[in-house]
Amino acid sequence: MNKKLPAPEANLPLPPQLFHVLLGLGEDTLHGYGIIQAYEALTEGRETLLPGSLYGTLSRMVSAGLLEEADPPPAQTSGGPPRRYYRATAYGKAVARAESERLERLLAATRARKIVPEESP
Amino acid sequence: MSTGKQRNREDGPTRSGGLGTVLFRLALMAHPRMWRDRYLEEATEAFAGGVARRRSESGRVAALRYALEAVADAILSGCKERIGARRRKARGAKQVAAGQLLDTVRADLRYAHRILLKRPSFTLPVLITLALGIGANTAIFSVVDAVILQPLPYRDAERLVQVREITPQGFGFTVSPPNFASLRDQARSLEDATAYRETLLTLTGGELPEAIWGIRVSAGFFEFLGAPPAIGRSFLPEEDEAGAHPTVILSHGAWQRRFGGSPATLGSTMVLDGVPRTIVGVLPRLFRFAEGDPEVWLPQEFTERDVSLRGRHFLQVLARLRPGTEFETALEEMRTVWSGLEQEYPETNTGWGVTAFPLLQYVIEGARTPLLVLLGSAGLVLLIACANVANLSLARVERRGRELAIRSALGGSRSRLIRQLLTEHLVLGIMGGVLGLGLAYLAVDRLLVLFQGQLPRADAVAVNGAVLLFTFIVSLGVGLLTGLAPVVQGTRHDLFAVLRGTGHRLGKAWAHGRVRGTFVVAEVALALMLVMGTGLMLNSFLRLTRVDLGFQKENLLTGQISLPEARYQTADERAQFFQTISDDLERHGEVVAAAAVGVLPLTWNYTHVFTVPGAREDAAWQAEDRLVTPGYFRTMRIPLLSGRGFQDTDGADAPPVAVVNQTFAHQLYPDGRAVGRRVQFKGSPDEESWEIVGVVGNTRQFGVRAESPATLYRPHSQINPPSSMAVVVRASSSPRDLATTLRETVRALDAALPIYQLSTMKDRVSDSLTSERVMLVLLGLFGFIAVVLGAIGIFGVMSYSVSQRTTEMGVRIALGGAPRDVLTMVVVQGMKLAALGVVLGIVGSLALGRILTDLLFGVEPGDPATLGAVTALIAAVSLTACLLPARRAAAVDPAESLRQD
What we know:
The complex is a heterodimer. By secondary structure, chain A is mainly α. Chain A is built from four helices and three strands, in the order αβααββα.
């Protein structure tokens, strides 16, 4: 990846699906279905990523420098179709961080407007 | 950029997993091929995992919901990928903002999706209806595509023509070798021509002798079609003539089945008809020839006699037009060649003409009309389904009136609302299409089974790219068609009336009623047309089964025996064999009678031309020539009308005698008295004259439909009998039990002889009606669906109308109207619509009936009896569908109904 990447903030607001993928990945190296499972676990099954659109998104995220393809973790060479593994690049993590901060600020604003009640302890 | 590692997509273990997975994989077809190559297996695995997890954790409904959502997502993102890929190609890297419009569409789609999932009571019946309609169309289209639309799998197939001679009586006929040679030498408009003929062979060397199908071809035949052998060589020019070393080429299938696909097969021998032949080649795996898939291919090996006699016609001829040559021009030139031949060889060619057909037309002859009729009928079913769905949608849009009104009050523009409603219907159409595709996928195989191998090019039938495209377009069309009325009605709401909550109770309801009424009228009309088609097919099928065949088909067992010429060289040996087998069979207690015949009724033709001394000067007549053993008429129970039948004394040394059928007698002799007259055969060396000693009843020869042709019977022992004859055995009870007896009797005479095509005459007759039966079953199915959908349509509209007018009914009853009058009022209202539909349907049937003319037998397309019965049926169904809501209307409690408002 030798082209110059724009500042992380230039990607904001990040399309939700991209954000969800970065959330699902975290610090791990996962294949597509692994990302779906991780994201579903994270949201306690309330949200999901659909397989039909996910793989195209992953490939675009690799092109945009948010993700990189990685070798499978040594423990996971079991059966199933050949899988591609992904992990977030440093740039991808920076973008995810920038998006979370943006959302944080938005949430604070909604609280100020009392649309959402203050978080109870 | 991502590194494109090579992945093998065959080795995933996720191929299993039900209809859902099949549908999902089909939906992924929306993605570009590159995407599928990389991700298909992974995505399928993720989908299967998602479905499985939901089923175990949240139950079937959640799993179904997820599956539908994932399928829709796969289709949408696939379209997006495709568009994206095209844009990237067109505009390099300028891709970032490109997907924005699509994102809005996507938002619409997501919303549509949610709305639809929220109302399963609406979505489910609609999806089932559309899936049936689209599935039927997809299944039939996949057959139409493979049989009619795809070009034949040969080189420059569109320039190939089948050449046939025309007999002096005007029938299509095979070509004689010398005429073929003249055609090839003289016709400038032809680039090339080749010849073939089918043949039945006995294969020995295995445990049991076996009859196999083969084709003899001229040198260069495979190159002509653009399919030279995959292994080994083609036939050489010298193999066109007898005397060359005997060779054979195998089909790929035969090579696999009989030789395990071993490369060592080349050079080994195969004993066919007692002649050891060297295997010199194997054809490509995908090679199919128009006439089915014969196992072995032999060179022509023409004898001196074959190439010298212009009067012996036995070749099928294929020709390729020169590039740029019009078909008509080529045909005209061929006709010129034939008139030249007529001048040059008046002895053999007087009266003979030539004709040609584009090869595809020749191959699928007879299948075209039935398939197109089926496709049209499936189309009618889909239209009825659309009308029903549109009606359901109309009702739903009215129920959603409030939501739509609020949306427009909040600033949703009319166009935005239209887009939303249309999107919902497109989603419905696509989902129906995906389900229909699944149904078609399952139905196509069963459909082909129904045809019992009698459909040309059936092996090419598949759900392929063209079929997917067809289904996609149909699905979009269905979406638009079903969405139109709801869109128009749904966005025309009187906002304030709706918000007041009185909007669609009064006033507007009638306007909507009219639209609905129109749909009902259309449904009834279309259903009547379909049922009329079914009725006509049923009527003609019943007539076909009742046709007097001229013989008794019950309790008859038939089979074919071919004597290898190497072991049965003389005419006497062959004649003796068939006589002995008939006699031996008759010795069994359960056998009433047995005989042999050259060609069984309802199979193929074996036509000869002959002259009648003393008859009209120019008469060169054509008749079916049947060689029989003396017991034939007795075994078949063909009645003797005058004179005598054959006797054992009509042997080789006795004076030649013949028996003719009624048609023959009447065509040749105006007084119908044929006994005692003589006939002579033309163009063959055995030009002795034959005395007619008897006249028998007519029998159908070319299938149940065709009138009996002029037929002449001769004792098999008085001519050079063919090496292959059919044996017919009349049993005292079930003929099937005789199969073993027949086999054992043959084996006792000659253990190396196969008997094949063993079947009862009843089955043969039934098989000959296969295509009629398929038409009847499918049209019956379509007609049934049409009637059910039509009834649901009437019922739905009348129920709706009643529910909208509950208040009115209540008032009527409260004011002293008898419930009976209310009932009558509703029924009359519904039946008015039905009656209009019936009238339009009758008009439509009469207008379109002509299409069926070729398929019908003994019934006119506008047959009044059928039309009457069908009309009565539709009227009865309509009445029932009206009565149910009418009775509810009559039972309205006035107090209750007035309280509602």
